[in-house]
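Team,

Forwarding the record for the chain on the shared tracking sheet. I've put the sequence and predicted structure together so nobody has to dig through attachments.
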Amino acid sequence: MSPLDTTLTNALGGRTAQALRRAFGHETVGDLLTHYPRRYARRGELTALSELAIGESVTIVAEILDVRERTMRARRGSILEVRISDGQGILTLTFFNQAWRAKDLAPGVRGIFAGKVGDYRGNRQLAHPDYELFEAGDERAAEAGDVTAQKWAKQPIPIYPASASVASWQVAKSIEVALDTLPPLPDSVPESVRRELQLMPLREAFEKIHRPETDRDHLQARDTLKFDEAFVLQAALLQQRAALRHAAATSRRSSRGGLLETFDADLPFSLTGDQALVGDEIARDLAADIPMNRLVQGEVGSGKTLVALRAMLAVAESGGQSALLAPTEVLAAQHLRSIVRTLGPDLAARLRPVLLTGQMPLAERRRATLAIVSGQAHIVVGTHALISDNVEFYDLGLIVVDEQHRFGVEQREALRRKGAVPPHVLVLTATPIPRTVAMTVFGDLDISTIAELPKGRQPIESFVVPLVDRPGWISRVWERSAEEIARGRQVFVVCPAIDAATVETADPPDDVAEGAAGDDGEGSGERAAAAHPIASVEDVLASLRAAPALGGRRIEPLHGRMPSAEKDAVMQEFARGEIDVLVATTVIEVGVDVPNASTMVVLDAERFGVSQLHQLRGRVGRGGHPGLCLLVTSSEEGSLARQRVDAVASTTDGFELAQIDLDLRREGDVLGSVQSGGRSSLRLLRVAHDGDVIALAREHAAEVLEADPALESHPALAAALDRRLDEASRTFLAKN
């Protein structure tokens, strides 16, 4: 067993281990040692107290100015007031009935102080803060010219992610105990690679990131540990990729004069260059006797569904079935109508596409499941209902997952298991993925990109409507919408909530989802911008029906709480042009295709992520009319929320927006069920900034695995994979 697998109970004792487990989920020495410092301070460094925000939880380095005790007026007891300073600003520490602290908190002493910044009569204060004083070196630090004292004063102090129950220095003391007894560690990165890249041994890297004597120490240690993390992760992804290629699959080939050739001959347009190229890649995968595992990413409206339909036709030629898994009933129903329309009456009659959703009437569900199990239906479109135990396929040859991030891992895997032999898998996403993210999150998939848009797609103009500065502009939004309707066009209005109590935003932006506090309690997040009531379908619907600018227009709602049949009826009426304004939640985010819709109004746009706003905007400009997108926001200029909205308005290039989105937010959990924001399983690696490290690690990991697939000569790497990838993480990887 690796020393890193030692339990914290054995290493630190039960009480400390329990505190760390409750605060951070740490179980082993390895967990604790990868709880890396968030930043480094110095004993001679003073924090700018004037910059502290009221209500912010802070960890600061400061000097004590004076200490005084006074009697409380309203009740018995005393208050100890300690003023600390950075040389300019002053902050007061207050302790109730703890006069004994005056012995330690002496004027001139410096230390680390942690607590929440409060306000008392216009002055900043910390009530009952935690603190650690720099006692050991005070006398030496006072001796002029003392080299030891100067070294002590300049030594970086690690400031750790903390919690309300475990302070930064308590983490530091636990790590010191663990390091003091830590023996030499086997390196997961081979010696030859470490020499080539001038990396530290793993044991030394842990020592120097937690107990650096200079900035150079922790910077070099960070480089080593970052590469180690990337190397283990890429090795795991490459291992999984290799395992998938050992499974047997049924070869699915299109033939001369077959379904696919007939379909292509009847298309009223030519495929774009990217569609043809990606189609060829998919055809080669399907013809192989190992399962295809391909991700197709492309711009909104780039024709990914057409590429997937052509793959379904190739599978149908061999008698196989294809299942298209869609995230919503609205989208599933639209996919079916689009497929039937695109196939034409003859091919549709031969392939018998069917729809299966959870809210279909029982008789319709029975007819659909019978067509699926008998093999009569070669194309099956549905929601999560497809994975029900009572749904069986005759010969499932291809799974197409539309918008993978909208499904749980277990749901996708359950559908995969319905094939008698492993089916081919094609994943579609209209959220372009930067290369480094693709290498990290989808390292076990082959990736194809469709960047070219079909001819006829109209340009979309996007504008920010900043209500915080221009509250009167909301009237102009509805006037502009009325102008589009007067020209015979239609309008989407998107709200983040159904009613005052029901928010239906599918992917809340990370700063809203995580809350305001950073993981070290230093207030690094951003609160939701809107202080006004959240825009809801119910309220906006009533408001627009009463708006003079839209008088006489038909305005209808669409949201996830409506019955399935009602949602489908409303969507079809809108598609036929019978509804002028559709007030909806994000159920219309992906795949909805209404060529006559020219205008997209997004209310409380700051409550949506960058990719969501880009997806919503893609619902317009799909016909012969230029698109207009109005992003209505109450967020302050310069805030993170406003930066997201401004970014979407600045470009319609989804790949550029994907990189901006990555730069603005944290990565998701690469090796767990959390797929965006939240607590990432990555410790030091940041895919937005460490692309070179990831690429280099993947190159070296590939060389090691090619020469030694079972890692018989690399036991340390095998052990690191076992430690880093617990059973849940391995299952997650296997299902992607």
